Amino acid sequence: MNKSSSSYKKSMTLETERACDHLDCEAEGEFRAPKSRMLDRGGPEDYRWFCMKHIREFNKSWNFFDGMSDDEVLRYKDEDITGHRPTWQLGTRTSSAKRSPHFDDPFDFQRDGGFGEHAEKNNRTSGPKESVIIDEEHRSALATLDLKPDSTLPEIKKRRKELAKKFHPDIRGGDKQAEEILKNINQAYTHLLSCTPS
Fold it and tell me: What's the CATH fold of domain 136-195?
């Protein structure tokens, strides 16, 4: 049984061994080389098989761009950047995408004035901006300082300073209620500072 299994293995290796494709060479063809540049990435039948000596000769003489014009070589080089996948210039298909009924806009970019080449034009012609959704903590902080949602950082600082002077316990003679109000003012101020761009 052991003898038959070794003869089976030997017959399998003989079937898979390839002879070198170079004329008058009997060595095993271990190394593959493409038959043409158009058949690159094909199956085993799309390659020639050479021994070490002849694959070196083949590689020295192989020119992938042989037969291509200078323009074709440059186009190939440019297309190789994207792996030869189709591309288009950025911003050239936005108008057709906006008109397409199948265009999915989950973030509602079109409402905000569009994107790409249409963004600036749409922003100039659009009316007043919709109000930003504000969470409860932010709304409460604005109410504590009696500010509007679009208040700037200098306005927030100015308002906090006014209220701190008004409700400071030293000015109020140690009033505990004023102390609690000042704590709320400071918490609101800290929250607004963390949320407001400088």
Answer: Helix Hairpins (1.10.287)
